[in-house]
Amino acid sequence: MERERQHLPQVVIVGAGFGGLEAARHLRAAPVAVTVIDRSNHHLFQPLLYQVATAGLSPAEISAPIRAVLRGQRNAEVFLAEVTAIDTANQEVLLGDRRVPYDYLILATGARHSYFGHDEWEEYAPGLKSIQDATTLRSKILRAFEAAELTEDPAERAALLTFVIVGGGPTGVEMAGAIAELAHVALKRDFRRIDPTQARIVLVEGLAHLVPAFPTALAEKTRDHLAHLGVEVCTDTMVQEIDAAGVLMNGERIAARTVIWAAGVRASAAGNWLGVPTDRANRVLVLPDLSVPGQPHIFVIGDTAHAEQEGEPLPGVAQVALQQGRYAAGVICGRLTGQTDPPPFRYHDKGNMATVGRAFAIVDTRRLHISGFFAWVLWLAVHITFLIDFRNRVAVLFQWAWAYCTYQRSARLIVEDNMDEAPTPVAMTEHSAER
Amino acid sequence: MERERQHLPQVVIVGAGFGGLEAARHLRAAPVAVTVIDRSNHHLFQPLLYQVATAGLSPAEISAPIRAVLRGQRNAEVFLAEVTAIDTANQEVLLGDRRVPYDYLILATGARHSYFGHDEWEEYAPGLKSIQDATTLRSKILRAFEAAELTEDPAERAALLTFVIVGGGPTGVEMAGAIAELAHVALKRDFRRIDPTQARIVLVEGLAHLVPAFPTALAEKTRDHLAHLGVEVCTDTMVQEIDAAGVLMNGERIAARTVIWAAGVRASAAGNWLGVPTDRANRVLVLPDLSVPGQPHIFVIGDTAHAEQEGEPLPGVAQVALQQGRYAAGVICGRLTGQTDPPPFRYHDKGNMATVGRAFAIVDTRRLHISGFFAWVLWLAVHITFLIDFRNRVAVLFQWAWAYCTYQRSARLIVEDNMDEAPTPVAMTEHSAER
Questions:
Q1: What is the per-residue pLDDT across B203-258, written as a single tens digit (0 to 9) for each?
Q2: β-bridge partners, A371
Q3: How far does B96 lie from chain A, in Å, by closest CA?
């Protein structure tokens, strides 16, 4: 097989997120050798990552080994490796000392969170992009309640029970709703000294409305439902400072031990590898066919590409990545068979949806603008359908049904990054006679 | 409630494994205030930990928050904290600066793996006691296959595809069987350059037979079935050296990138806290009523206790811990109600069981000494029954049914301990033209 592969056009895809994996799958019948390179061994269903961070789902339930996904696609191989550079002159992707030649290259390396020039905030306000981010955040949130139960200092307890989420887009809204329900429902009867229902959850958004991609009416519904769940929503509010003590916003200090960043993203290093112009968020400015100016064999797709439609950059959502992955694969197939290139890429927006806590969602499509229980059922159906494999669908459906009936969370696990280092006793107060 | 608690006898339990949790539950109706202290937030079902390490189950499926388990027990509270010392003179448990007074103390802090004085081996041959151990080992095993796929050096590839398990007790046997099936079945069609079925799995045991706690006939069956699964079994073999290159045993070097330690354990620090005599494995030498000599209010149970029966120390298994937990709780209840102490603790051995790969187990009870499929069904029924909550039972049963039907693993997840540090490209070879 290796010998045959050598004589085929080499298509290298970096990144096995929605865009990269979709491109690989759409090349399954093409006379090419596909190599997918990712530094993780798994494809991650990012839209449900907030449920891992809030103890609702286990990591394995929203991820699938890239290798297993592409098992049946005989023209594809998978490398678990970190790309260190791209040699465009020789058409090679560098993995440290190793070089992987390409005839066509698709870069789908996604984005990380960005702190708008305040990188020092990351330490205090982690973001949510990977499984590791999610389990770290889960430990941080659960540990805050544990430390609050132990401390005898009322001010410290209040700070431990205050959660600030920065960024009122879908991720921020979903996190705020999930933390509110965790605190106010799932943990309600689990503590003896604190009352988790007294936890304060603050959602901060710089613009005038939450979820700016949705119509104002749905944003208002979202705000109302969050208020109903006990979330304080602060719109038109800029965060001025984040440190170990909490958040400074509107000139006011909020003492909070847990701050979560859901405000901005920055594209991965693809632009730097290529040395081509990028926008402020480091996204590569691609041509209408998603190729890189001057490099017709290199395509950039998904969160790491800046493609415009009607003068606006396309949003960093799964749908865009999926459609771009399919498009780039199609362009490559066409060129190999000598067809003329298809018309420029056009994004077909099938709509947006977001959940707000249990049994409430907002759905915005061309025909439908709804909120509430029925929207949540739709949200649920769509997310189950798009999960990558059947086992994950069954497992997630079971966890959701269980959570719906029992109000409990399935994965309330605090796991230390390194158990060999003795965990520091949490929130110890001064020597004091207990009880 | 806090006020009432102060006037009750204080029972402090350190460690929420099988023994500690069982003791806490058996005090549910007693007129005492129970405080359970653990440095993890979850109770762990250790007998299935090897399935997490071999990607069969997710961590949350074999663990439950201690708090949730004791939610309904109103006389119990839970502290997530690390015990730093015990002040027996003042009857206080120290958590850093904080002091928790006790009238009765139960120490059930378990054991970690021990390297018989070769602590330098730990780096190369990790053991399996916590969730973190299991996910680290899972990453190590899965990463070995990934690195083997990437490398172009045949010797390196062979070393990456060699797995040595040191210790032929139930854990070692179960790990060897699970790795064999992972390599030879689940991963079979997932790679393009390596053949995972060529992976070499070596199980090393110092004694003449595997699973020494079982009758020789069952040990032989185990050996035969492991051979059938493609595991090389080396009994009567002492490991002389373990380093980055592999293992030295019987004067022969085995090049192996993955070595797993399942050979010995050492009790936790309970003996050091108390300053009382311990055995070679650091287990506290307890009196027949499981109390500590000279400290009638302190009980030590489970893996951290050395209790003898017919001149032999009791084994470090869940059953012993459970029965000791119940016994210690009973002694405390009895003393509070002025009854005379019960007769000395006696362990009632209900038998042993271990799985060997898929659909094969050995079961040894007073009446039954069987191996094969029916033994495996028994093993399965017992393990499902003893899982701590109903949700876990359903989830594990689903994963097992799925794995049984599809031959696949549900949790093939490589997660870096710290994603912020760029993962090093795995097993890169020298500059070479690919393909």
A1: 999 999 999 999 999 999 999 999 999 999 999 999 999 999 999 998 999 999 99
A2: A362
A3: 6
Q: Where are the beta strands (DSSP E) in A168-256?
A: 200-204, 231-234, 239-243, 246-249, 252-255
Helix axis angle for B18-26 and B318-336, nearest 10°, is 30
The residue ranges of DSSP E strands in A128-183, in sequence order, are 162-166
Residues B116 and B322 sit within 8 Å (Cβ to Cβ): no
Cβ neighbours of A398 in B, within 8 Å: 394-395, 398
Give the containing element (helix H, strand E) for A382. helix A373-386
Contact A125, A259 (CB under 8 A): yes
Confirm whether A2-39+81-113+265-336 and A119-263+352-406 share one CATH topology.
yes
Among residues B283, B253, B358, B255, which one has the least CA distance to residue B110? B283
Active site residue B174: yes
Burial class (CB in 10 A: 0-12, 13-18, 19+), B430: exposed
Per-residue DSSP letters for B43-62? Answer: EE-GGGHHHHHTTSS-GGGG
Pairing of strands A252-255, A246-249: antiparallel
Indicate yes or no: CB of A133 within 8 angstroms of CB of B419.
yes
By DSSP bridging, strand B92-95 and strand B98-101 are antiparallel
Are the CB atoms for B32 and B329 separated by under 8 Å?
no
Using alpha carbons, select from B199, B105, B127 the residue that is nearest to residue B158: B199
Determine the Cα–Cα distance for residues B322 and B315; give it in Å rounded to an integer. 12
Residue A416 has pLDDT above 90, yes or no: no
Work out the number of other CB atoms within 10 angstroms of the CB of residue A83: 24
- Greatest alpha-carbon pair distance for chain B in Å reads 82
Strands A92-95, B76-80: pairing kind: unpaired
For A300, B215, B287, B352, B377, the CA distances from B370, given in Å and listed in that order, are: 60, 10, 36, 11, 11
Q: Give the separation between CA A279 and CA B316, rounded to whole angstroms.
A: 61
* Location of structure tokens 């050798």: A33
What is the per-residue pLDDT for B387? 84
Nearest residue of B to residue A133, measured between CA atoms:
B419
Task: Sketch the domain layout of chain A as residue ranges.
Answer: 2-39+81-113+265-336, 119-263+352-406
- Residue-wise pLDDT for B374-412, tens only, equals 999 999 999 998 887 778 888 888 888 888 888 888 788
| CATH number of this structure's domain A119-263+352-406 | 3.50.50.100
Distance CA A426, CA A187 (A): 19
Classify residue A2 by burial, with Cβ atoms within 10 Å: 0-12, 13-18, 19+: exposed
3 state DSSP class of A163 = strand
Q: Max alpha carbon distance in chain A (Å)?
A: 82
pLDDT at B417 (0 to 100): 57
**Using the beta-carbon criterion (under 8 Å), do B61 and A59 form an inter-chain contact?**
no
Per annotation, catalytic residue among A22, A92, A174, A205: A174
How would CATH label the architecture of B119-263?
3-Layer(bba) Sandwich (3.50)
pLDDT digits (tens, 9 = 90+) for B274-302: 999 999 999 999 999 999 999 999 999 99
A97 part of contact set with chain B, CB < 8 Å: yes
Asked whether the beta carbons of B62 and B73 are under 8 A apart, the reply is: no
Q: What is the Cα–Cα distance from B32 to B29, expressed in whole angstroms?
A: 8
CATH number for domain A2-39+81-113+265-336, candidates 3.40.630.30, 3.50.50.60, 3.40.50.300, 3.20.20.70: 3.50.50.60
Query: Can you give the pLDDT at residue B64?
Result: 92
Chain B hits for A429, CB-CB cut-off 8 Å, are 97-98
Could you report how far apart the first and last alpha carbons of chain B are, in Å? 72
Half-sphere exposure of A357 (CA within 13 A, CB side): 24
For chain A, the distance separating the N- and C-terminal CA atoms, rounded to the nearest angstrom, is 72
What is the residue whose two structure tokens read 């190599």? A35
